[in-house]
What does this fold into?
Amino acid sequence: MTKRRVFVDTSAWANIVNKRSPSHEQAAETYSRLLAENATLIVTGFVLAETHVLLHRKLGYPVAQEFLRAANTSSHIQIIYPGSSTEKAAKLILEKYTDQDFSLTDAISFAVMQEVGVAEAFSYDAHFITAGFVLVNPLPEP
It folds into this structure.
């Protein structure tokens, strides 16, 4: 049986870490479930950097640093550092979806997911659905 692989986006990490977030409990449950399933959690260096900045601004430097330490030492997390071919693919995605407000980090995430064959994302960003991926968690009601 193939091991489940799920891409984890900044929005998920932020909700997992920030206990004051309205989606924290649901995010923590989803994260715990994925860990219990022994899923491989895929993340890019871009997502780690984006999450670090967000956590630093919202929760302080020590929390941001602990997140990085935990991400870099977890046996469940696979960190991918995209190269130039991935960045080129991401720029093509941005050109394809000119009607969307995808960030470069979003587009790199999508390109990595396509390259490594991951169809599922743990994210609170509907852009993943727009780009053709499946979310493992429900989005909160607007």
In short: Helices lie at 10-17, 24-36, 45-59, 61-73, 84-96, 104-116, 127-130.
